[in-house]
Structure formats: C-alpha cells, structure tokens
Design a protein that fits this description.
The chain has two domains: 4-85 and 198-212, Glutaredoxin, CATH 3.40.30.10; 91-196, Glutathione S-transferase Yfyf (Class Pi), Chain A, domain 2 (Up-down Bundle). 34% of the residues are buried. It has helices at 21-30, 48-51, 72-83, 91-121, 128-150, 162-172, 184-194, 197-212; strands at residues 4-8, 36-40, 61-64, 67-70. It is α+β, with helices and mostly antiparallel strands. The chain has eight helices and four strands. Strands 2-1-3-4 form a four-stranded mixed beta sheet, with helices on one face. The model has no long low-confidence stretch (mean pLDDT 96). Helix content is 54%, strand content 8%. The structure holds S-(P-nitrobenzyl)glutathione. S-(P-nitrobenzyl)glutathione binds at residues 11-13, 18-20, 45, 57-60, 71-73.
Length: 217
C-alpha cells in the first residue's frame, strides 16, 4: 500500500526544502518507499477534512491504510521502524539514535526556529532590538554545543541514522541565514546530508511542486 503525505500547494520558500514534509519525503526516499502527495492550500489546511488528519491544521500528515499520523518526527520514526535501515539493529545504538531524533526536534530546533521567526516576522516590533541578542545567544549556544559534540565525525553516532536525518533537516533550515557558516563542521555535516541521493530526490520532488502546480485558491 502506498502511503500518502500532505504538503504545501504553495510554499513560501518556493519548495526549497524548508517545509517539514521534506523530512518525511527524505525518510521515504532513504527507504526507497514510493509515496503519493496530496497538496493542500493554506485554507484547505484549516478545513474539517484536513483537521480530522491534523488537529493543528498543518502539514505534513501521513496516511497508510487505517493509520493516520501527524508530526514530522513521529512520521519519520514510524518510517524508520517499519522499514529498517535508519535505526541501528543494536538496541543501545538504536536508543541513542532515537535520543538524537528527540534532541533535534526538542532541543536544537526550537531556538533556531525562534531566531528565524524573530528575524522574519518581528523586526517591526518595538522590543525587537532588545530581544534579538538574547534569541541569537540561545541559538548559538545550542550550535556551539552540537558542534562540540559532532567534532570531526561524519554523523552523530557512527552510521547515518534517523537522528541525523532530523538533525540535518533542522540545521538545513538555518542554512541561508548565515549562522551555520560560523560552524564549519556543522556546515559540512549538512552538506553530507544534502549529498545523499535520497535527500536529492526528496528535494527535487518538493521543488517540482512549486514549478508545476498552479494554486487552486
Ligand atoms: N511540529 C510539527 C511537525 O514537525 O510536523 C510542525 C508542523 C508545521 O510547522 N507545519 C507548517 C505548517 O503547516 C509547515 S512546516 N504551517 C501552516 C500553518 O501552521 O498554518 C514550517 C515551515 C513552513 C514554510 C517554511 N518556508 O517556506 O520557509 C518554513 C517552515
């Protein structure tokens, strides 16, 4: 049975890997698992049919048979569990990979997203100039720590795992904002992720949406 995921019909980044369906596409591509994509407009995401799949009216969702999931991390976890290859067989290594999945989404992503939202959406606020250094410091602290832990290793814990997939996905989003360039080992880590054939296929598929789909509303 072919899973169906949802993605933006019109993404603000023009389909260049920022929206979170990218992680799901990447995981599916790593498994060579074919998938269908249902594109949704911003208004459709808030309608009952989509809210039945995703209580917060967002993308991505994942449907396969009688299973419906939301949250990109849970979807990637499910794909990794079902197919093997993204989680090590050794029990301890597997738990460490899962730990990195949570670390990517719970510890590294929030300060990076906070910084991005501040820069893109809050520049006109009267408190922006005061708050921004605090937001920058929080993001740099996390990247300092992650950079120190990664060191000169290729991946976070030996071989490439779902933990790396999510961590690279999180860092990729900050790539164009300049901050990642301050960390050569993290930049190289993201570049290694981007060089994976599965990443490239996922990226191309997301980009194709922007170049071919006409908005419905
Ligand atoms: N925690 C959830 C997950 O990981 O699945 C978060 C899902 C989420 O934030 N979805 C966003 C969404 O549906 C798209 S990814 N937003 C619509 C809404 O909330 O109404 C966030 C995103 C979107 C676009 C860009 N971009 O174009 O640069 C970057 C990130």
């Amino acid at each position: 049975m072919t899973p169906i995921i949802t993605a933006f019909e019109q993404s603000p980044d023009h389909g260049t890997g920022q929206a979170r369906d990218m992680r799901v596409r990447w995981a599916l591509e790593e498994m060579n698992q074919p998938y269908d994509v249902r594109l949704v407009s911003f208004s459709e995401m808030k309608e009952p049919a989509h809210l039945a799949l995703h209580p917060f009216g967002q993308i991505p969702t994942y449907e396969k048979g009688d299973l419906t999931l939301f949250e990109s991390g849970a979807i990637v976890f499910h794909i990794a569990e079902r197919h093997g290859g993204l989680l090590p067989d050794d029990a301890n290594a597997r738990w460490r990979a899962i730990t990195w999945m949570f670390a990517a989404l719970n510890t590294v992503e929030p300060p990076l997203v906070d910084r991005e939202v501040a820069m893109l959406q809050e520049r006109d606020k009267p408190w922006y100039e005061q708050r921004q250094p605090v937001v920058e410091d929080r993001a740099r602290k996390r990247l300092d720590e992650l950079s120190r832990r990664l060191g000169d290793a290729d991946w976070l814990d030996g071989t490439f795992t779902a933990g790396d997939l999510l961590m690279v996905g999180v860092l990729f989003r900050s790539k164009d904002s300049g901050i990642l360039e301050e960390y050569p080992n993290l930049s190289a880590y993201v570049a290694r992720g981007e060089a994976r054939p599965a990443f490239m296929r996922a990226f191309a598929a997301q980009l194709t949406v922007f170049t071919t789909v006409q908005p419905s509303k």
